[in-house]
C-alpha cells in the first residue's frame, strides 16, 4: 500500500485477450508487479483461454472489463448495430450516439452479455469497467454502463477520461486528451449520483510512435490521489494490430529499472484503486 508521503498510481493495461502475445505480456507484467490493473476484452473468443493467465493474481492487481462496442463481433445478435455480424468503428458509433440514433436497447443487452462472459471465467464481477476506444463514456451508452455496474458490480469503479485543463496541458498530446475529456463531460456527475467511484485524473495518450520511456514521466504530471494511466503493452506482431511495435516498446520499458526509478522520483506507488475527492473536470472548466 502507498506510504503516507506517497500517492497511488493506477497503471492499467488495456486489451487483454486481444491476442495470445498481448495477453502473455500483460500477465507477465502483472506478476512482476509492474501493473496495478488489467482491462479484459471478454467479447473475444480467446477470453476463456486467456483468462486462466490471471488466476492467482493478488488483490494488488485489479481485473476489469474492457467493454467492446466497436470493430469486433458481438456476443449476441445485434441487427441494428451489427447487421453484418461486426460492430461499427468507434467514429461511426460516436456519431450515432451524438445524433441519438444508437440502438441503446441492443447495446444494453450486449453489455450484459459481456458481463456474463467476464463473470463466467473470473467467478466474480469486474473490479472496474471501461471501454475499448472509450466507448463506455458515449452519450446514452454511459447511462447503461452505470446502471449495469450499479446492479451487477456495485463495488467497481468506472474509468473517467476527463481531467483539468492545466493537467491536460502539462502532458503529451493534449488535444487527444481534451477531446476525450469533452466526450466524458457529465460522466462524473452520473457516477456520483449512482454512488459509484471513478479514477480522479487520467493520462496515457500518445501517437504510439514516440519514445515511450521519455513520455511516461510526463503522464505523471498533475497526478491526483487516484491517477489512472492507461497503457497497451504486448509482444509479437499479431495480424492487423496497428500498434504492435508500440506495444513491444511499452512492455520492454515497463520491465526496466528506469520505470521503477520514475515512480520513485514521482513518489508514486502502484495501487489497484483509491477513493478521493473529484477535481474539476474539463467540461466544468470550459463552462466556467
Task: Give the strand content.
Answer: 5-15%
CATH architecture: Alpha-Beta Barrel
**What's the end-to-end separation, in Å?**
37 Å
Biggest beta-sheet profile: 9 strands, parallel
Low-confidence stretches: 274-288
CATH topology category name: TIM Barrel
Report the C-alpha radius of gyration, rounded: 18 Å
Strand tally: 9
Order of helices and strands: EHEHEHHEHEHHHEEHEHHEH
Please bin the fraction of helical residues: 25-40%
> Shape, please?
globular
Q: In CATH's first tier, which class applies?
A: Alpha Beta
The CATH superfamily is: Glycoside hydrolase/deacetylase
For the residues shown, what is the average pLDDT? Answer: 91
Description:
The chain is α/β, with parallel strands linked by helices and 288 residues long. It has one domain: TIM Barrel, CATH 3.20.20.370. The protein has twelve helices and nine strands. It has helices at residues 20-31, 47-51, 90-98, 104-122, 141-152, 165-169, 174-183, 187-194, 212-219, 244-254, 257-266, 282-287; strands at 7-16, 37-40, 62-67, 128-131, 157-158, 197-198, 201-203, 226-231, 268-270. Strands 1, 2, 3, 4, 5, 6, 7, 8 and 9 form a nine-stranded parallel sheet that branches. Helix 5 links the parallel strand 4 and strand 5 (157-158). Helix 4 (104-122) packs parallel to helix 5 (141-152) and helix 5 packs parallel to helix 8 (187-194). The longest helix has 19 residues, at 104-122. Mean pLDDT is 91; it is low at 274-288.
